[in-house]
Amino acid sequence: MRPLVATVDLTALRHNYLLARQCAPQRKAFAVVKANAYGHGAHEVVTALRDVADGFAVACLEEAEVVRASAPDARILLLEGCFEPCEYRRAAELSLDVAVQDLRQTDWLLDAELERPLNVWMKLDSGMHRLGFTVDGLRDCHARLKGAAQVGELNLISHFACADERGHSLNESQLEFYGQLLELAFDNCSLANSAAVLTLPQAHMAWIRPGIMLYGATPFATLSAQELGLKPVMTLTGALIAIRDVPVGDSVGYGASWVAQRPSRIGTVSCGYADGYPRSAPSGTSVVIRGQRVPLAGRVSMDMLAVDLTDLPQAQLGDAVELWGAQVPIDELATACGTIGYELLTKVTGRVPRRYLGG
Ligand SMILES: Cc1ncc(COP(=O)(O)O)c(C=O)c1O
Known about the structure:
This is Alanine racemase. This protein is α/β, with parallel strands linked by helices. It folds into two domains: 10-215, Alanine racemase (TIM Barrel, Alpha-Beta Barrel), CATH 3.20.20.10; 234-357, Beta Barrel (Lyase, Ornithine Decarboxylase, Chain A, domain 1). 46% of the residues are buried. It contains eleven helices and 18 strands. Helix 1 crosses helix 3. The protein is 26% helix and 23% strand. The site of pyridoxal-5'-phosphate has 11 residues, from helix 9.
């Protein structure tokens, strides 16, 4: 078997969920498990959290089906609502909560014949300009949906654009827009993603919606997951599958971009960009072998990457190589590649087996 595995620590996941709730005492928390639980496996993540989580949030009906099969009684929120009129019927069968973000979805909902009313989360565009009503549009929609047979709870939801940048002026202005609607007497309100859970208590409202923090990564550029008390959930581990000596002046890998400046010992690791390790990782990026950091040497290939073992003479064929995890924080790798932990986690591909610990 190819030695590459993504180990998912479900005990750490639960710790992170409970930390999110501790940040917002008395509030409820939708665990955001869209995109296959940010790459960790929706079924396993939902199963591990279902006895502690107040609910789950997903991006679409297909994802909700997986969550409902794993958590028959959980509250499940469709964050973008339904994409076609026929989906409302299925949403009602599955007892989902649905976002309603525009007039088209409002019309579809009011035209639908449902076996039971749906809890609706009316989405306000408070400044992100991605989805949602204007303040006035939301008032109109509220008037139309209030008392409709298809509607159970009538709730308010919005989303921050810059909660990961503390002190950003948009945070205050989004809160202000949101506040303008609070006199409409909603059953529940929700605004906070992980960054707001961690640093904007005034945005906590009735329901928080932590995503990335559950998986032990930070939403912030300047505050690490460790500083926030988060535990890494996924560890990506490959192995040394070849080792060779490379003389001064010889190159390693595609494009011959890395050239030995000293007699070098080069290891080949069983992980590449087709597994989700970023091709943009530059030479010098750290992996950990036997507890010691060693640098990438040359370009990442589809199935393999090379590391410079010269300063780790005890490294041997078969040694485990941590690509990210407790010793190589995913956020550190993401920063080195000009991206964010979210992208790396969600891009671990299907050919990498997931192994689950704890839970
Ligand atoms: C509407 C909504 N709420 C909550 C989240 C969770 O955000 P985060 O992963 O930053 O906590 C997301 C994720 O993008 C989202 O789209």
